[in-house]
Amino acid sequence: MRLILLGAPGAGKGTVAKMLTAVDGSVQISTGDILRVAVKEGTKLGKQAKKFMDAGDLVPDELIMGIMKERLKEDDCLAGFLLDGFPRTIPQAEQLKVLLSDLGIKLDAAVNLDVPRDVILDRLTTRRTCVDCGAIYNVKSAPTKVEGVCDKCKGKVVQRDDETEEAISNRLDVYNEKTAPLVDFYQREGLLMDIAATSSEVVVAAIRERTGA
Ligand code: ADP
Ligand code: ZN
User: Fold this and answer.
1) How far is the CA of 149 from the centre of ligand 2 (A)?
2) Model's pTM, two decimal places?
3) What CATH number does residue 57 fall under?
4) What DSSP string describes the chain?
5) Mean of the pLDDT values across residues 187-199?
6) Centroid of ligand 2 to alpha carbon of 154 (angstroms)
7) Ligand 1 close to Cβ of residue 86 (< 6 A)
8) Is 171 a pocket residue for ligand 1 (Cβ < 6 Å)?
9) For residue 165, is it within any domain?
10) What are the tens digits of pLDDT across the range 41-68?
């Protein structure tokens, strides 16, 4: 399947994407994960992106489009892809449209995971992430077996730099201002699939029904 996953930070895009990759071998492409690896490795991209990310602001469109132009051409995308955290602005969506049409690729849907703001806030403040493999945990609902240690790779599990209360509140404002308009954009494109994202299992089932995967 070829999907865009839309939704506020903490809506569950990453979790749903990970579950869907198991269905048909589609690859999860998370711009957030790509950027965090770049920051950790101290590459030029990482250095350019870090200050925006720590503040909860968006990284400039040119940097993101540079990453995605290369990424979507890689062979593993032939099996399908789940775009998690991209596009995030109207210019990114417009440029993606051109890019996909150049590559001769058609999207199945843009899925909007709709989650109430209080649920989002609660999830983000309790979320913990493995610095090595990106696995996501939650101190309340899905804790690691050993505190601070990843179940999968034994990496260190921490609260992200952009998951302080201040950065979270900024990320939600940025989402409402810059990313929420994409819901209307994909509605006009005839691709929107709106889901009240109560549980990841329900979301995955609805997506499979729609895409036939
Ligand atoms: P979230 O949990 O907020 O969905 P992500 O892991 O997707 O977070 O992204 C983390 C940060 O990386 C964002 O706050 C932003 O600074 C940057 N980022 C990720 N994807 C994009 C994008 N498509 N455009 C601009 N900035 C991005
Ligand atoms: Zn790990």
Assistant:
1) 8
2) 0.88
3) 3.40.50.300
4) -EEEEE--TTSSHHHHHHHHHHHH-PEEEEHHHHHHHHHHHT-HHHHHHHHHHHHTPPPPHHHHHHHHHHHTTSGGGGG-EEEES---SHHHHHHHHHHHHHHT---SEEEEEE--HHHHHHHHHHEEEETTT--EEETTTB--SBTTB-TTT--BEE--GGGSHHHHHHHHHHIIIIITHHHHHHHHTT-EEEEE-S-HHHHHHHHHHHHT-
5) 92
6) 6
7) yes
8) yes
9) no
10) 999 999 999 999 988 899 999 999 999 9
CB-ligand 1 contact for 179 (6 Å cutoff): no
Q: Is residue 69 a part of any domain in this protein? A: yes
Ligand 1 centre distance from Cα of residue 30 (Å): 8
Which residue range(s) make up the domain with 101?
A: 2-115+174-211
Express each pLDDT in 142-184 by its tens digit: 999 999 999 999 999 999 888 888 888 889 999 999 999 999 9
- Domains held by the chain: number: 1
Q: Mean pLDDT across the chain, nearest whole number?
A: 94
Give the model confidence (pLDDT) of 94-107 as tens digits: 999 999 999 999 99
139 is a domain residue:
no
Q: Is residue 120 part of a domain?
A: no
